[in-house]
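# step 3/5: fold
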Amino acid sequence: MLRKSADTEVFRITGARQGLEDDVRGRQRRYVISMSVRTVSVVLAAVLWNVERHVAIVALALGVLLPYVAVVIANAGRENATSLPTTFVRMPTPPALEAGPASGPAESGDAEGASGRVPPPHEHL
């Protein structure tokens, strides 16, 4: 079985940004919807001016303010993905093995060496 090297970067698709074409298409769609609402509100203001003046004034105010809001929203730019996880995931590096104790000829001839004690095993997490 082949293993990937520790230097390999793994890409998360959840961290990828929306494509530029999709972003522009979405902003254009929001702008067209806003301008459609504006058109309806201006027509509604003209139709209701002599019937229900209060509603007509509110519709006219919406028709005047909506283009500014629509342009600001359309030109806001691309989204910030601060809440998404990072794009790159580093593979954990396996712990390195440490060199064992130096083995030389023991003076007493046993496996414990000259001091008479066995060195403790290394715990490495």
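# step 4/5: annotate
DSSP finds two helices and two strands in the chain.
# step 5/5: archive (pending)
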